[in-house]
What does this fold into?
Amino acid sequence: MKKNRDPQAISDILKQYQAKTDNKYISKEFQDYAYRLAMDLGGQNPRQTISMCMRLVKNKPRGLIESAHQYVRDAKARNKIALFLWKLKELEKESQAKKEKKAKINPEAAKKTKNE
It folds into this structure.
């Protein structure tokens, strides 16, 4: 038998799933993402981890960061931060190699990306 529920306001539903962050200084989306990433990676000094993640999220492509983060989540590592940074470095090397290979195949496309 189905329960008969009254419609709920969307704001009430979303309040149930709001993230609980104690940091009142977060004002941009990338800061929130970096904070969540730092909390997931853990570390002995959370303040350094948060600042490192802020810098990475602001300067690196989000796709590479998410791929490295997914790799760390799937792995059972003791030092998640070191594994994350290693994987991010490897992904950047792969990305750079693909760009160079594409530049060799199509030099005009490489000129366009350099000018942008």
Residues 24-115 form one domain.
